[in-house]
Amino acid sequence: MENTVGIGLLGAGTVGGTLIRRLVEEHEAIGAKTGLDLQVRRVAVRDPDKPRDFTLPPGVLTEDAMKVVTDPSVGLVVEVMGGQDPAFDLVLAALDAGKPVVTANKELIAARGPDLIAAAERQGVPLLFEAAVGGGIPIIRPLSETLAGEQIARVMGIVNGTTNFILTRMSEDGQEYETALEEAQVLGYAEPDPTADVSGADAAAKAAILASLAFGTWVGLDQVYREGIEKVSALDIQFAAELGYVIKLLAVAERTGRGVCARVHPVMLPAEHPLASIRGATNAIYIEGPSIDELLFAGPGAGGEPTASAVLGDVIDAARELLAGAVVAPRIRFAAGALADFGDVTTKWSVRLLVDDEPGVLAQIAAAFGESDVSIKSVWQEGQGSEATLLIVTHGAAEGRQRVAADTLRHLEPVREVESVIRVESPEA
Ligand code: NAP
Ligand code: HSE
Fold it and tell me: Does residue 320 surpass a pLDDT of 70?
């Protein structure tokens, strides 16, 4: 039986380079385990003269990415170049030519997934993207296949290693944000331009994919509410710790009474929550559902080896489908569904205020919350006189009402500053 599949790669950087090295060096072992003869036939890069840590026969590297897609010896295309353009046109061309595609590109799937999924469905070929969320953690397949019958209630994830590393350093070593970010860059976790990491954009693309797969309703990248960690201070982390919380940047995807909601923002999590103990650059995804109760997937969310491992698993899966010659049904179908406006979603807030500590101040602050129909759960004060800090944690109320309360506070005479607002995820109402 024919068992050879020609592989074309779009990109040979951190992920693609590792994948090529493994396909070449472990060719025999992969063949023994899978029965497949996976051959690297064409590889697109920007600069073919750059030194690489893999060896391929002369002529395999090309600057012309479309040549990889159109090469008749390439039966399966792996997109690991990143970004939306030219990746979108290349992936679409591969699918339209009936070639299965494996990609690690979260931005591409989150922003333009529906068009690509439709093209894969038209041609009956697989489009696989296990590495797009959580790097080496298997999460796309569990969500779209193993848990296909589960009525998932909520998915919460630490899906960006850089920000989790920064918050861990700030919390465990008392580092300031800038120092921790510099260390993340030195250690190679953060991108050279870490904006996508710290602004939550990287996590938002992953949140869109997780929400779409968990609930079967497509959630676009521009429909994810997003805040980064740039404003989280060492003081926020210290106050949170004193109250028994840990601050994490979470991607939250949930089914609410008003529809599906996906959001990324810093969260105060009770220290005993399973996600609170996920330290450093590790990623984790926590899933809640009526039958499974709770599941936790954790592991390395980035880096060449873990990510290439997930890509290789997809390559093997897609190669088997290709050789079987069957028309592949999409692994998940997306139905039209309501998306909730974040302003209507129930959230709990922790608000840190710098106030003048005078008689009646607390009454004014409590009234501001009361007028917005937001109930206060606890109040904690440190310092006195003009140096008094109040930390107020609210019960759950519509996000929009919490915002109105915070705006009212900003205009109160004794409130010198609303220093921070961080949402709280705790089991209590
Ligand atoms: P990378 O190291 O920057 O590699 C990108 C590769 O694509 C390079 O080989 C580059 O060529 C090539 N390339 C870029 N634009 C090209 C163009 N227009 N034509 C031809 N070749 C082009 O990126 P990476 O870290 O491997 O990431 C690849 C993908 O995996 C991204 O979508 C990323 O989000 C995703 N991902 C990465 C990680 C990770 O830890 N790195 C984890 C999960 C997912 P040169 O080598 O000549 O520059
Ligand atoms: N820069 C990302 C991170 C890489 O820190 O997790 C994986 O998307």
Answer: yes
